[in-house]
Amino acid sequence: MDVSVRIGGLEVAAAGDDVRLVTVGLGSCVGVAVIDTRSGAVGLAHVFLPEAPPSGAKPGAGAGTYAATAVPELVRRVARAGGPQRTQRLVAVLVGGATMFGGGRPGQDIGERNVAAVTAALTAAGVPVVASEVGGTHGRTMYVHGGDAADVRVRQVGGAEQVTWSIGPPMRAGATLEQRRAA
Amino acid sequence: MPEQYTEIQLDALREVANTGSGHAAGDLSEMLGHSFQISVPRAVVTDLPSAIDLLGGAESEVSAVGIRVGGDVEAMLVAMFTPAQAANLCMLLGIEADSDMGRSVLQEVGNVLACAYANVLAEMSGISWDVHPPTVLTDMLGSIVASLVAATTLDITNVLLIDSTLAVNDADAEMSVLFVPYDDGIDQLLLRLGVG
Questions:
Q1: What is the CATH number of the domain that holds A73?
Q2: What is the mean predicted confidence (pLDDT) over B170-176?
Q3: How many domains does chain A divide into?
């Protein structure tokens, strides 16, 4: 079953949920997937802006709207979805951050700024970015699958789904991502 | 931006949209030798995800012709049409849509529409502004609209979209025009229109 993540949205799925998180139409927005490679829990946020405006977060803005607050919340919820007693091994995949309208005002490349803000927030949270498909001039749709065949796929208008990241061989209990990659 | 616009303010913006559509229809009729008409525009103030749903859904493919206007007030004007709308419009004009000629005509239609709005806004509000060359792209509607709004109003809630539709030769060939002002541009504009 697909669970849609709207602009500014943030959704999490536990490994057993058998859902795919989908966010459609990432332009300058950035889709941030956080995957717990131990538990198979996944989360996806559709980040709209680097941070809230000086006047504060807009009423009604979703938990995924601003990179600065979306990333810590996403990391916390994916870790929690993995179960309280588990050790997590979280990784992140970034998609989006395109420049859709070239004629924007200088210094206003929101896509680039979104990618930078999300990357900084992930670094602060200690979550490595293991794959990304960012920049360019086209919109993207992002699909995040959890469980023991976790992967992140991307599709552009008129294109097919491409695998941007996958967990690799089926999970073995306690195996790290590095071990899985080596397997 | 204020949290809500009054009905009077929305009426003023609809009036701008109506007049702009009228000018655009006249320009297009003259340029392309067909009768262009305007259906009733809507001025929508809503949150961004809902606005995208209203326009046809985030993943629907659209071609967009965007022009940026700068000066007293900065804004983006974007004419958008779906592949079906583009094909229909070209068919009514007797042009192959999937050709250089077809693409060129669609760009020109979008450009004329967007410029007509810019001119009417300038006339009615006394704002002077420069019109930059158009940017043309074909992509997912959600990507286009969200990126546009992110780069302008920095506001995910309460975005303003003026949407109008055109018909050619009494047949159904629609396209939408969005007006997205930068920063507090919409408040500036309402002030100039006398309903701030």
A1: 3.30.1330.200
A2: 70
A3: 1
pLDDT in tens, A78-125: 999 987 766 779 999 999 999 987 655 555 688 999 999 999 999 999
CB contact under 8 A, A58 and B156: yes
Q: For residue B151, tell me if it sits in a domain.
A: yes
Domain extent at residue B87: 7-192
The phi-psi region of residue B175 (left if phi > 0; otherwise alpha if psi is between -120 and 50; otherwise beta) is beta
Output the CA–CA distances (angstroms, integers) from residue B22 to A41, A95, B65, B146, in the order listed: 54, 41, 19, 28
Q: Which of B133, B146, B154 faces A27 most closely, judged by CB atoms?
A: B146
> CB distance from B162 to chain A under 8 Å?
no
Strand blocks (E) in A39-86: 42-47
**DSSP characters over A136-181:** SS--EEEEEE-GGG-EEEEE-TT---EEEEE--SPP-TT--HHHHH
Two tokens, residue A7? 């602009």
Q: How far apart are CA B82 and CA B141, in angstroms?
A: 9
Whether residue B2 lies inside any domain: the answer is: no
- Give the distance from CA B66 to its chain's centroid: 8
B7-55, pLDDT tens digit by residue? 888 888 778 778 887 888 888 888 888 888 766 567 777 788 888 888 8
Q: Which of A4-13, A26-35, A86-95, B120-129 bottoms out in mean pLDDT, i.e. has the lowest?
A: B120-129
Domain count, chain B: 1
Token pair in block for residue B33: 């030798």
pLDDT at A171: 47
Chains A–B, number of C-beta pairs less than 8 Å apart = 117
Chain A contact for B49, CB < 8 A? yes
Looking at the complex, report in whole angstroms how far the Cα of residue B117 sits from the nearest Cα belonging to chain A.
Answer: 18
Does the ipTM exceed 0.90? no
Q: Which domain holds residue A8?
A: 2-182
